[in-house]
Amino acid sequence: MTTRIGLFTHAKKQKKGGRTTENIYVDIDSLDALSAKLNELGAQQVGLMSRDRTGTTHLEGKMFPVAELKETHLSWLSSKPEQFATRALFFE
Asked: Which domain holds residue 24?
């Protein structure tokens, strides 16, 4: 079974008043597939990101190396939050 995960990063070209992030959505079926996609995108660090209905984003904890991704992170990404929010990975 595949899970759709949002991957967010800083926008390469930022216009004044424009978007500050770029996003990619990937369908993955395992932690290895997610790690491979992040490595393909050149990610060095990742963080669990949450965005609420007003558009406010924050990281759940601190950024960590891609190699430290665990099944618990994947479970957090694929589970439904208690309140309306979007869960994703932020990478640099």
From this structure: 3-12+19-91
* Per-residue model confidence (pLDDT) at position 71: 94
pLDDT tens for each residue of 56-65: 889 999 999 9
Counting every residue, how long is the chain?
A: 92
- String of DSSP letters for the chain: --EEEEEEEE-SS--TTS-SEEEEEEEESSHHHHHHHHHHTT-SEEEEEEEETTS-EEESS--EEGGG--HHHHHHHHSPPSSSEEEEEEE-
Range 46-63 average pLDDT: 91
Count of domains forming the chain: 1
